[in-house]
Amino acid sequence: MSDAGSYKDFVPVGKVTKAHSIRGEIKVYPFSGSPEAMLRYKELLLATEEGASPLSYQVERARIQKNSVLLQLKGCSDRNAAEKLVQAQVYVHNSALPKLQPDEFYLRDLEGKLLKTEDGQTVGRVTGFLMNSLQDLICVTGKEEEYLIPLVPEFIQAINKEEVTVSLPQGLLEINSR
Asked: Does domain 107-175 have CATH number 2.30.30.240?
C-alpha cells in the first residue's frame, strides 16, 4: 500500500461494498457490470474519502462472486482493515484498461460532451452516470431540465470530440426529465 497522490490518470472501475471474511478480503461492485473485467487488474487505487489521498494496493487474489469480485489486497490482512475500505471508490490506471473495439467506448469518453438527437435537437451536456443493478443511466443537463436516459448501446449512434448523437424512442425525454 502506498500513497498515489493525484489520480487524474486513473479511471473509476468499481466501489467497495463490504468486507468479506476474517482474512481481509473486500467485495467490489464493478461499474462495467462485468466482474470478469476486474480480474485483470494487478494494482488498484482506493479513495476512501472525498479529498483524501488515494492509496495504491497490489491485488494478491481475485475471484468472482455473483455480480461482484472478492479481492485480497496486499496490506489488508484482517477484517478490521477491510472494514476501513468499505464505500471506497476503486480506480485503475488508464494504461491498464483493455483496448477497445471500433464500436466500443468508455463512459468517461461521453462525460462533458453535448448530447444531440439524430434530428439535431440538443438535449444537453452529459454530466455523469447513475449505475445500479437494474438500468445504468446517463445524466444530461439541459437548459431548463435534467434528463436520465437509459444507457442502451443501441441508442448511441455516433461519438465525436464534441458530441454524442443518440436515437431515442419517441417520448423518452418527456418521461425521463426531472
From this structure: yes
Nearest to 69 by CA among 110, 40, 100: 40
- pTM given for the model: 0.69
CA atoms of 158 and 165, how far apart (whole Å) = 5
Q: Report residue 6's pLDDT band, with 50, 70 and 90 as the boundaries.
A: low
Q: Which CATH number fits domain 2-96: 1.20.1260.10, 3.10.20.540, 2.60.40.10, 2.40.30.60?
A: 2.40.30.60
Cell of 78: 484482517
What are the start-end ranges of the E strands in the chain?
2-3, 10-20, 25-30, 43-47, 55-65, 68-73, 89-93, 114-117, 122-130, 137-141, 146-150, 156-159, 163-166
Query: Contact 28/14 with Cβ under 8 angstroms?
Result: yes
The three-state secondary structure class of 80 is helix
Q: Where are the domains of the chain?
A: 2-96, 107-175
The three cell numbers locating residue 81 = 482493515
